[in-house]
Amino acid sequence: MKHVPEDLATFGGTPAFATPRSVGRPNIGDRAALFARLDAALDRAWLSNGGPLAEEFEQRVAAIAGTEFCVATCNATAGLQLALRATGVLGEVIVPSLTFAATAHAVAWLGLTPVFCDVDPLTGALDPEHARSLIGPRTSAILAVHVWGRAAPVPELEELAAEHGLRLFFDAAHAFGCTSAGRPIGGNGDGEVFSFHSTKFVNSFEGGALVTDDPELAARARRMRNFGIARAEQVELIGLNAKLNEAAAAMGLTSLDSMERFIAHNRENYYAYRDGLAGLPGISVLGFDERERNNYQYVILTVDERRAGLDRDTLLAILAAENVHGRAYFSPGCHQMRPYADGTRLPHTERLAAQVLAVPTGIAVSAADAAAIAGIIRVAITQPAAAARAA
Ligand code: T4K
User: Fold this and answer.
1) DSSP conformation letters of 164-196
2) What is the pLDDT of residue 7?
3) Which of 106, 174, 210, 371 fits as disulfide partner to 79, beta carbons 3.0 to 4.6 Å?
4) Residue 26 forms part of a structural domain
5) Whose CA is nearest to atom 11 of ligand 1?
6) What are 180's strand-pairing partners?
């Protein structure tokens, strides 16, 4: 346990952890169950193209999302592209800037124009009123994000989309297993897309899923996922190869088996951070609404330099010296990334992007680790000037 700044590794103290504690360390479920599924797939000699494991994965994801249809994909980026393309979206798509680049890239890669929207200054959720001001003659869709697993303002966005005849999608990459107003995230708007990337709390190595209650969208996306093939040798649509293979599905199913354990573990870590950081000036832990079901997979702090005496990047460096690898998720906002920067300014996004810090969680991090990491932050914030000089 660190008590005074001299204990910090930046001052030459011993690093708090001998091995790294990192954001995004994969949760790994029951290896025996995984290997049994892989064995069965090898015995069947059916490794991709709608195998039984991928189909079972789709059924289990749809049940959790509360949707009629699930189209599993090789990753969420492809899932977003299928959703947009299968519904014939053209022109401009309103997206938040405070998100991973994939949200904007999915739009731009299809030749559509992402129009960046500002966010709520506290929660980081897309601001429906700013979105309204961005709607023009070329706008055909809104792609909102349930950033860090907290729901976007679904009812306001549904109203806005209906008022202007826009398609509405949700990038739910972070929000698998969560609810919004008590309903599972999955069935909102025209469709929602989950990520099952290795860094997500339920992972399939790489993977994603488009979930929807719209039979036409599901059918078109399913064909487009497999080169637009309707039946053998009959290509009806321009498609891509976005299928989930059987090895990925085996991992996905094995992760689903342990999902409740992963959530309970993440929740404990979240409370260890929240308790350990309570009352620290300039440090806030983004809360979870306990009336909802949450997956607790991202523990997000904001570092207000004026009150904390340290900026986010200095704190990241202090933590790195202790073998604690946080991430600035998401910084900069997409509107300031090279492919998109055109001088647009989004004040709330820019402030949050400068302050956000994701701290390590997941099963590779114990609640005691989380408490120790909070302790490091407490020492750094208590003597900010000295810690900043050293970092
Ligand atoms: N929409 C949103 C809002 C998203 O956040 C994402 C992805 C997407 C869409 C697209 O989903 P996918 O198409 O990927 O399904 C990582 C992930 O690659 C990315 O999936 C994720 N969001 C994003 C938030 O994080 P990077 O570039 O930060 O990854 P990287 O390689 O720096 O690794 C992150 C951390 O995880 C490091 O501390 C290392 C650790 N790690 C990573 C991997 C892959 C491990 O310890 N083991 C591993 O196997 O993007």
Assistant:
1) HT-EEEEE-TT-TT-EETTEETTSSSSEEEEE-
2) 87
3) 210
4) no
5) 76
6) 183
Q: What is the mean pLDDT of residues 80-101?
A: 98
Instruction: Pick the last residue of a domain from 202, 237, 257.
Output: 257
Residue 383 banded pLDDT, cuts 50, 70, 90: confident
Q: Tell me: the pLDDT tens digits for 39-81?
A: 999 999 999 999 999 999 999 999 999 999 999 999 999 999 9
What is the model's pLDDT at position 1? 79
- Residue 358 identity (one-letter amino acid): A
Q: Is 99 in the pocket of ligand 1 (CB under 6 A)?
A: yes
* 103 Cβ below 6 A of ligand 1: yes
Lookup: tokens for 284? 């806030």
Last-in-domain residue among 233, 257, 281: 257
Residue 199 CB–ligand 1 contact under 6 Å: yes
Mean pLDDT value of segment 261-268: 98
> What pairs with residue 85 in β-bridges?
none
Distance 23 CA to ligand 1 centre (A): 9
Residues 235, 375 share a domain: no
Examine the domain organization and report whether 352 and 241 are in the same domain. Answer: no
Digit-coded pLDDT (tens) for 351-365: 999 999 999 999 999
Sign of CA dihedral 85, 67, 228, 202: positive
Atom number, ligand 1, closest to the C-alpha of residue 99: 3
Same domain, 250 and 262: no
Q: Is the CB of 328 under 6 A from ligand 1?
A: no
Show the tokens assigned to 344.
């647009």
Q: What are phi and psi of 266, to 5 degrees?
A: -60, -35
**How remote is the CA of residue 100 from the centroid of ligand 1, in Å?**
9
Centroid of ligand 1 to alpha carbon of 204 (angstroms): 13
Boundaries of domain holding 322: 5-15+258-390
pLDDT over 70, % of the chain: 98
Ligand 1 closest atom vs CA 25: 46
DSSP 111: T
Ligand 1 contact, 171 CB (< 6 A):
yes
pTM of the model as a whole: 0.97
Same domain, 220 and 89: yes
- The reply to whether 22 falls in a domain is no
- Please indicate whether residue 172, judged by its CB atom, sits closer than 6 Å to ligand 1: no
Q: Which residue has the tokens 């200054």?
A: 121
